[in-house]
Structure prediction request, 213 residues.
Amino acid sequence: MKSLFSVLATVMLFVSCAQSQTGNVQIPVGSKKAGKNEAVATFAEGCFWHAEIVFQSLVGVRDAVSGYAGGTDEDPTYEKVSGGNTGHAESVNVYYDPSVISYETLVAAFFASMDPTTVNRQGNDAGTEYRSIAFYRNEKEKKIIEAAIAKINASKKYRSAVVTEVKPFTAFYPAEDYHQEYIKFHPENGYVQHVSIPDYLEFRKNFKGPYKP
Prediction:
């Protein structure tokens, strides 16, 4: 989604996570009603608009909030993060019920919804803010992530090895309000139509779920 504003300025060129019709695709949205005994998982996989609908489509996930994580700036903004100097990556905080969906399933969905072998890039979105990161909150989560990476590498699915960073979670900063549920509220956006939605449909084709109705 690099350069939402530059994309608008260049008349809807398909450059990155920022800019044709969602058609009949049902876009999953989060629920602001907090559930009991919720857990939180944090992932970065390129454009956070895409990551939101990936995780919100899964049974057991209440919400995925777009934001910034992985860097040192304690007051990140979209403009600052896009500049590549904050150390942050576009990320999502995933609020889920571990009695319904496991952390292992979330990690599997994470790796299934992107290319984990591209350094500082997902599709046309290039820069450190689009790097792939799996954040862990304890050693159990770290081992689950590392096991998933080892499995992918052993499968030879990709020509290159996984470059996803495995980092301890430190802080998450929610993105600006206009980024939240962006795909749902901006179906006319060229990037949404030609990148976000096709990527989401490809994810659903390749990952077994469980999906919300």
